[in-house]
């Protein structure tokens, strides 16, 4: 099927077009520059930017794919989780196109879409797979027997998401928002074993698949403050590398453990933090050792985009899942096990 996908859960206005597992277009507009000085995404600014960017972004996607709107077989849209006002712009746009084209509408889960996007690069997902979703708002381990309708949460962060930790540590280090990319870059020149930052929830009695990054963030902030108080320079590269190592270590150790415990030999990563170079390298290394097949989308498809929504929509159409009702709304707290609604 030829599927048009809309993504507006945060600051990215994404419109993607896929045919089956083939990516035809992935048009993106972002309001990130407007949020930068606030150190976080401002919901009202994001909603307004989505409104302004929506129609031009759809036109760009159609042109890139070389198709007409009337060629579309189905429309998919992120209906949650995310910022309510931002989500509503995408849902309204998707409804309008579905209605005008007289095609089925699928309201999908943003998090499942982060996993589905990998099918555009590596073909059908092996099922069951373990999925590790690490982004600005979420960090979860999932058992995925069937991406179209059966996604089971195994564990999640009990405080900050992995991406949130990157963003907060970047702020402590005076690096721009969002913090993932500049920390990744700074860490290249650093020693990952320079500072022994804590690995949250890795004790024997801790929940095996839950994460905690808030202690790590505090530990980094304390370490940097102590340096500054002593009037000593802060070794930016070493702090970045050591922090990044702590995150990558915990994430990959728990993902491999989830695979082993569930007898699953396929792991897929998704979400913005999956763009991190050290996480990708360490996951590769540990999966190879454990005999696990690792799949990670290219960095550009890890962060929010419209193609991921179209990819999941395509999957739902192929599986014969019922489309959404015409009164589809936004659910800012859509649970992770609700793939579509
Ligand atoms: P969610 O998907 O939970 O709703 P989101 O949509 O804001 O949240 P994404 O766009 O998937 O999240 O990811 C953004 C996050 O990814 C930010 O926190 C950002 O710092 C982080 N990130 C992006 N690139 C990298 C990188 N190279 N290394 C580490 N983190 C990164
Ligand atoms: Mg974003
Ligand atoms: Fe996301």
UniProtKB/TrEMBL annotation:
Keywords: Acyltransferase, Cytoplasm, Iron, Metal-binding, Transferase, tRNA processing. Binds 1 Fe(2+) ion per subunit. Pfam families: TsaD. It catalyses: L-threonylcarbamoyladenylate + adenosine(37) in tRNA = N(6)-L-threonylcarbamoyladenosine(37) in tRNA + AMP + H(+). Fe cation binds at residues 110, 114, 304. The keyword rRNA-binding does not apply. It is an enzyme of class 2 (transferase). It is found in: Cytoplasm. Substrate binds at residues 133-137, 167, 180, 184, 276. Residues 23-310 form the Gcp-like domain. GO terms for molecular function: tRNA N(6)-L-threonylcarbamoyladenine synthase activity. Its main location: cytoplasm. Required for the formation of a threonylcarbamoyl group on adenosine at position 37 (t(6)A37) in tRNAs that read codons beginning with adenine. Is involved in the transfer of the threonylcarbamoyl moiety of threonylcarbamoyl-AMP (TC-AMP) to the N6 group of A37, together with TsaE and TsaB. TsaD likely plays a direct catalytic role in this reaction. NCBIfam families: gcp_kae1, T6A_TsaD_YgjD. This is tRNA N6-adenosine threonylcarbamoyltransferase. It comes from Blastococcus goldschmidtiae.
């Amino acid at each position: 099927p030829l599927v048009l996908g809309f993504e507006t859960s945060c600051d990215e206005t994404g419109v993607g077009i896929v045919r089956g597992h083939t990516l035809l277009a992935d048009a993106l507009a972002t309001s990130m520059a407007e949020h930068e000085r606030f150190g976080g995404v401002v919901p009202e600014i994001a909603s307004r930017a989505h409104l302004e960017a929506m129609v031009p972004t759809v036109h760009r996607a159609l042109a890139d794919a070389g198709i007409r709107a009337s060629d579309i077989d189905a429309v998919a849209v992120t209906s949650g989780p995310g910022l309510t006002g931002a989500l509503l712009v995408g849902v309204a746009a998707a409804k309008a196109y579905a209605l005008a084209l007289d095609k089925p509408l699928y309201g999908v889960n943003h998090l499942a879409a982060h996993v589905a996007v990998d099918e555009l690069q590596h073909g059908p997902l092996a099922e069951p797979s373990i999925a590790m979703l690490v982004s600005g708002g979420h960090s979860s381990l999932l058992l995925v027997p069937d991406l179209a309708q059966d996604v089971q949460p195994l564990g999640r962060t009990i405080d900050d998401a992995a991406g949130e930790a990157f963003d907060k540590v970047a702020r402590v280090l005076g690096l721009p928002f969002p913090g993932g990319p500049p920390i990744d870059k700074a860490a290249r020149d650093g020693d990952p074993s320079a500072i022994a930052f804590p690995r949250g929830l890795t004790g024997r009695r801790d929940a095996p698949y839950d994460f905690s990054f808030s202690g790590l963030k505090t530990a980094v902030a304390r370490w940097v403050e102590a340096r500054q108080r002593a009037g000593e320079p802060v070794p930016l590269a070493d702090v970045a590398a050591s922090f990044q190592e702590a995150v990558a270590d915990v994430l990959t150790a728990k993902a491999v453990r989830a695979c082993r415990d569930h007898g699953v030999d396929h792991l897929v990563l998704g979400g913005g933090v999956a763009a991190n170079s050290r996480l990708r390298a360490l996951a590769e290394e540990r999966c190879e050792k454990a005999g696990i097949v690792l799949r990670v989308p290219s960095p550009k498809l890890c962060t929010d985009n419209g193609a991921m929504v179209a990819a999941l929509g395509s999957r739902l159409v192929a599986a014969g899942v019922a489309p959404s009702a015409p009164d589809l709304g936004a659910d800012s707290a859509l649970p992770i096990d609700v793939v579509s609604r």
